[in-house]
Amino acid sequence: MHPDDIQAAWKKNGYTQKKLAQMIGRSELHLSKVIHKERASDYVCRKIPEAAGLASEEAFPEYYQEREAKARARAEQIH
């Protein structure tokens, strides 16, 4: 999902980037880096969509697809 769409969704639910950052205990810069896919954070990739009323996989599909692929690769190594 495009960063502008994520921001629009959380704004629609009454959050500013500052308010959301304070609520989840991260800096505004950290949130910006996550939504622009410059930094990965499982915690933030779950909390931002909650505030925006979105599914985590919808807001950050690349992040979750990569995690899934890594988990499958680890599982294959075990078996």
Summarize the structure.
This protein has six helices and no strands.
Keywords summarizing the entry:
6 helices, mainly alpha, 79 residues
Description of the molecule:
The protein is mainly alpha-helical. The protein contains six helices and no strands. Helix 2 crosses helix 3. The longest helix is centred in the last third of the chain and has 18 residues, at 61-78. It is elongated. The protein starts with a helix and ends with a helix. The mean pLDDT is 90.
Helical residues, percent:
over 70%
Order of helices and strands: HHHHHH
Low-confidence stretches: none
* Major β-sheet annotation: none
Percent of residues in beta strands: under 5%
Q: What would you call the shape?
A: elongated
Please identify the structural class as seen in this structure: mainly alpha
Number of helices: 6
Question: Secondary-structure blueprint of this entry?
Answer:
Elements: H1 3-12, H2 17-24, H3 28-35, H4 42-52, H5 56-59, H6 61-78
Helix pairs in contact: 1-4, 2-3
